[in-house]
TrEMBL record:
The keyword Chloroplast does not apply. The chain crosses the membrane at residues 7-31, 51-81, 137-158, 170-191. PANTHER family: ALKALINE PHOSPHATASE LIKE PROTEIN. Keywords: Membrane, Transmembrane, Transmembrane helix. This is DedA family protein. Residues 31-157 form the VTT domain. It holds the Pfam family VTT_dom. It comes from Crassaminicella indica.
Length: 196
């Protein structure tokens, strides 16, 4: 099972395993990123890893993954993804959803998109393909990456021994968090509009 192999990779190679898994996971390989980060947080509670080192290494891995994805999108464009996207688990239908998401929420899509598997990977490709300025994209992508990494590593520290149970319920928790974020954004938008 892929998830078990990834966790084994972290157990054996430590920080290097986390770094490589995050880079390739953000590029689009089917790596369970949230599970990886939560497990790393659990290892922190066991004294096998340092919290700030895990966050820094994972953050750097996410920056490189996002940058590589952006450059692939920028240099090769949609024809490349159309031809080879299936190998990166990228479909045109998913790409179209990201496009609507971007048009509607802009910079918030980049930050919040990190917390949504699939959108996290597609955001960078979309930004590259549509030739959005890299520095502006990178600012929000890196902010989202830092929040995402810190959240899940902290969660791993918090749940400790129960990390496997949490992983089993991950999708339910993710949906609940996404709903909370969307409702909060909606309320914020309405209040802002009302004040104007």
């Amino acid at each position: 099972m892929l998830q078990e192999k990834v966790l084994y990779l972290i157990t054996i190679y430590g920080y290097i395993g986390i770094f490589l898994a995050l880079v390739f996971g953000i590029i689009g390989l089917p790596i369970p990123d949230e599970v990886l980060l939560t497990f790393a947080g659990f290892l922190v509670t066991k004294g096998k890893m340092d919290f700030f080192s895990v966050v820094c290494i994972a953050f750097i891995g996410s920056i490189i993954g996002v940058s590589v994805s952006y450059m692939i999108g920028y240099c090769l464009g949609w024809p490349f993804l159309e031809k080879y996207g299936k190998f990166l688990h990228i479909k045109e239908k998913s790409f179209n959803k990201v496009e609507k998401w971007f048009d509607k929420y802009g910079k918030y899509a980049i930050v919040i998109g990190y917390f949504i598997p699939g959108v996290r990977q597609l955001n960078a490709y979309y930004a590259g393909i549509t030739k959005r300025p890299y520095m502006r994209f990178a600012f929000y992508a890196n902010l989202g990456g830092l929040l995402w990494v810190t959240t899940f590593v902290t969660l791993g520290v918090f749940v400790g021994e129960r990390w496997e149970l949490w992983v089993k319920n991950f999708h339910r928790v993710a949906v609940a968090l996404l709903l909370i974020i969307c409702v909060s954004m909606g309320i914020y938008y309405l209040l802002k509009k009302k004040n104007k």
